[in-house]
Specification:
disordered N terminus, mainly alpha, about 475 residues, disordered C terminus
Length: about 475
Amino acid sequence: MSTQSSAVDLTAPKLNEKRRFPAFSKRDTNIATILALLAWTIAVFDYGLFGTLLPAMQESFGWTATESYAINTWIAVGTAIVAFGIGPVIDRLGRRKGMMVTVGGTAIVSGLTAIIPTGIAFLSSGLVVLIRSFGGLGFSEQAVNATYMNEVYQVTEDAKKRKRPGFYYSFIQGGWPLGFLLASALALAFLPTLGWRALYLMATVPAVIIVWVIAKKLKETPQFELHHELTRLEKHGRSDDAHALARSYGVEHSSVAPLKRIWEPHLRRNTIVFSLAWIFNFFGIMIFSILGSSVLKNAKGVELSDAFWMLIVINLLAYFGYIFHGWLGDKIGRKRTIIGGWILSGISFAIMLSPLAVSPAMIILTYGAGLFFLVGPYAAIQYFMAECYPVSCRATGTTFIGAMSQPGIIIGGALFTAVAAGADTGTAALWVGALGTLFSGLLMIAAKPPVEALLESPPEALPQVANA
């Protein structure tokens, strides 16, 4: 057991005894919220640097535009492999250690990227693909956050966070645009003088610091402490004791492996729907968020330095998209929020890519609106997914679905590269990115919270989950 245990009562329960999870104090809840935001922001900082610096790295490594898009696609293949495997590890290690693994992996990846040699032909490109593939650890940090904060907000003493978890979680998930904003701002300030390698070194230091602080300050959730004990009892052949202990806390226990459990009949539908929605939505994420500077430069003729300025403003607008969608998800349901946001995003990007958007102001307005409605719903969908899976496979479910973003990047990248080579970047961004984003919103109509998730949710969350 971790020294950061939440003091769950693991003694044998009396007959029909009803137990409650220990509460997370307001102080511990605030620490968890702040550290989760910082961890995700730093993870995205590294993740976003590659897309932001891709034009500069393209020049340094001697890639053509098409080759750089292809390398980005191969990195997505490696990222998917890493991300698919991290969920079961988190369900085994715990949420706290899982956060340390994902952020610690980010620190290592950033540092190694900074020292990749150029000019060794295939070997240099291969090292870029290999090292950047482990960026899947940092990308998976959001799934750890969704799993961890869902459990924290269920048992917190802070009534406001317990009643409006989606709104408060939105500040954490907003680390995505903050990370990209940080990457764009530092690239604008230091890329001309220090080069792209120095920027990756800048990403290493805060990641190391965050891992140290998490190890010292972050508490494990009582739900995972219980899950850990149930797993221990099962391993020692005490299945009846495990089920009795689970019932005493009002949760369901299963000895089925987490990766197998997310495909059980009552969970399978959401696993499929969420996975498909992420695949198509990441057509848009890859093109308009990760490769934003390339799209502005090649599709709209914006100079690279001006593109960095635009992306700073655009990502600042996108941060408020998270807060808005987190708030709206608590009000009208997370499912409706996600559907509406992604449909509006696809329409906004289509307008941005049309001849209607010529002036810098119009480009920023339409691009900002597209990103506002593209990334903002992730504040709702991450929390929604965590609500849809029980504790025993919650991290596996959220990380597995999150990993489906990488097939989205792979498929979207291949389509984007093919269309861009045959036509131009603007046409590819429209038919792959904007259309894919809109279709992902339509797919979410089929999502439905399973009965099991409704039963395990605290009373305060039932209206939001049921209406989602």
